[in-house]
Amino acid sequence: MRLEEERCWLEIDLEKLRRNAAIVEGLAGPGCTPIGVVKTNCYGLGAVEIARELAACGCRILSTADMAEALALRRAGIREPILLLGPAAPESVEAAIRENIILPVVDLEHALLLERAAAPCGRLRTHIKVDVGMNRLGIPVNGREEEAREDIRRVTALPHLTNEGLMTHISGMQDPALDHLNVEQLERFSAFGDFLAEIGICLPMHCESSMLFLSHPEYHQQFARLTSAYLGIEKGYEPLGARCVARLCTRVLQIKQVKKGDCIGYWMTYAAPRDMTVAVLGVGYGDGLVRGLTRGAHMLIRGRRVEVVGKLSMSFSVADITDVPDVRLGDEVTVFGEADGGGVSIREYAELYGGHPCEVIAMLKEHIPRVYLHPRPGAASKLPAGLG
Length: 388
Ligand SMILES: *Cc1c(COP(=O)(O)O)cnc(C)c1O
Description:
By secondary structure, the chain is α/β, with parallel strands linked by helices. Strand 16 (about 305-310) and strand 17 form a beta hairpin. The radius of gyration is 24 Å and the shape is elongated. The chain has two domains: about 15-240, TIM Barrel; about 245-345, Lyase, Ornithine Decarboxylase, Chain A, domain 1, CATH 2.40.37. The chain has helices at about 15-30, 40-45, 45-55, 65-75, 95-100, 110-120, 145-155, 180-195, 210-215, 230, 345-350, 355-360; strands at about 10-15, 35, 60-65, 80-85, 100-105, 125-130, 140, 165, 205, 225, 245-260, 265, 270, 275-280, 300, 305-310, 315-320, 330-335, 370-375. The longest helix is centred in the middle third of the chain and has 19 residues, at about 180-195. Bound molecules: pyridoxal-5'-phosphate. Pyridoxal-5'-phosphate binds near residues 225, 228 and 229. Pyridoxal-5'-phosphate (PLP) binds near residues 37, 85, 209 and 210.
């Protein structure tokens, strides 16, 4: 890959990932094992590359959404145990046992299917998933604690399932004013753990994802499932030194003058309020940006924030560079991500259109080249010549 020829590319800084991983380890403390969640190609940043780096940083267990993602990590030579987040079909049990993949059990019926499939092959590693309020996956607990406990008692009696953990997922209210709703679910989960212990079922527990891991250390349990904290896109821990690992870049393809009153872009929705110098940039909504998002959107060129003007095109966009006269053809532009010197953060970009930082990076299309900066010495480098 010759980067000089790319319209846009996504940089992923592995040194920042290593730093974030060290911060996560410190916050987890000795009693809590972080699980590196790399689902959906690690939010688009590259599951194999991120998982490999996390494993090298000492992350002892990984997680993906489904079997296909887990098997892709195995094909890449990654050997850590992998916990699936979603229920696998009984047809996957043999491969799960062979490949050291841990399956969640989402209800008693599912457990019986897994048990039947596991019996001829050996013992299947499992965690039991319960639902304490999100009403997504897992054995519902609310208002039926006795029945849920009886279901779990029957699951733990099955001889071919290991049942090594009890997990749930919390709705994750972002608004600090609604944090009591997070606490309610955290409390319900830990109370249910106590309720199970009354009949001698004591399982390692986990419910925290990054937001709760950072905001509620008092609820740390034996495991925590983390992505955003590793990637440095979760709110509130920059003061600890965490940094966003990703940066979306494009370049200046053409520079031109536009007269006051002339319209820029599709549908003539933007008229230049003054004579302007504009730069045409090589990124658009076909790359995964939000088409309607121009009002208030900025990018960083030569250390200065410039405004995006006119509707985005599929592969191109236009920025007002009138106040940055030293911009040159081919200049690198930071669309968003951590840019030393005041670039637009992924969270800031998300907030502009009411989106979520995870969504912003997960929307970036596969055709955008991923460039991994600062691989550890000895690791296979994916760095194109001339960068790094
Ligand atoms: C994606 C996911 C996580 C990690 O979420 P972050 O907020 O990015 O840390 C944890 N648990 C489950 C069930 C998930 O789906």
